[in-house]
Amino acid sequence: MVPLCIAELRDLSGPDIERLSTRAADLIASHGDDAQYGGHNQRSARTAIAQGLAVLARADGGVTALGIHACMRPHVGCPGTSPARPSPSKHEERDV
Question: What is the pTM of this model?
Answer without folding.
Answer: 0.76
